[in-house]
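tool_call: predict_structure(chain=1)
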Amino acid sequence: MSSIDEDDDRSDRPLYSPKRRRLMRVVVTVAIAAMVLPGVLMIWVTQTQTANYACQIAVAYYAPQAQGSSAKFLITNPEIIGWNCFADFADGSEFFVAHLGLIPGAPRLVPLTGT
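tool_result:
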């Protein structure tokens, strides 16, 4: 009967020590981050480039006298959350040109006059 009692005592103990479990959690977390982070960075870079190109097109159409363009991701105004295009002028001022959306794409260029 003593051998049965010894087996019961051994089955109650954890398979790995708390230190080893903590180390395994850290290693797994770092491995998952190493797999996910490059994808997230590539998505951000692609969206930034697309927004900049779309903004250049919109500024050339709506504000040809502007010195440059800048695309910014804004979350402060709930009506225009996402990528927004601004025209940069020589005096340092900015003018809102177009909302490019959460996923930037080609801007919808609507003529400013009725013709």
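agent: The first strand starts at residue 68 and ends at 74. Proceeding to next step.
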